[in-house]
Amino acid sequence: MICPNCGRPNLPGDETCSNCEQSLTLLDQPMPQSRVEKNLMEEPVTGLAQKAPVTVRPATTVRDAINLMLAQNLGALLVVDVTGALLGIFSERDLLTRIAGLHANYADREVGEFMTRSPEAVPDDAKLVFALHKMDVGGYRHLPIIKDGKPMGVLSVRDMLRYITRLCQDG
Hints:
- The protein has helices at residues 35-42, 62-72, 92-99, 128-138, 157-170; strands at residues 55-56, 76-80, 86-91, 116-117, 122-123, 142-147, 150-156.
- The longest helix has 14 residues, at 157-170.
- The strands form two sheets. The chain has a four-stranded mixed sheet. A three-stranded mixed sheet has the order 5-6-7.
- By secondary structure, the chain is α/β, with parallel strands linked by helices.
- 30% of the residues lie in helices and 18% in strands.
- The chain starts with 34 loop residues before the first helix and ends with a helix.
């Protein structure tokens, strides 16, 4: 890659010019090779997660959280404080790894005790490809979408699969 500042060649993938130390990160953007790639790179996450997120407070009992997840067919709930700011996420994975077989009397305990604190999240203007990468690298099935620290939605693996499937069928 040629540095636009000093004209010096650099290795592909370099973040800064080896000569003038100018940032090259914005110049090293991949180019989409298909319609699916183009949509993933251009579509914001808010295009997929259009429903309001289902939230609970940290003091919600595990019993009530499970009942809510079952009633609404959800794999995760977002845990928020009194101002609506994201504190954590309580997911099926939390149930399996932090509760099942470890705690006999868990139903009346608080979700805040078992939730994943400060979960990875993406801003509401993030592109789908960024969110998909975060989900892949982190092994997440649910990714909160936030604006000003407050949840705007949740992007799930199921949402992504449906979206990509539709793109493949339409093209």
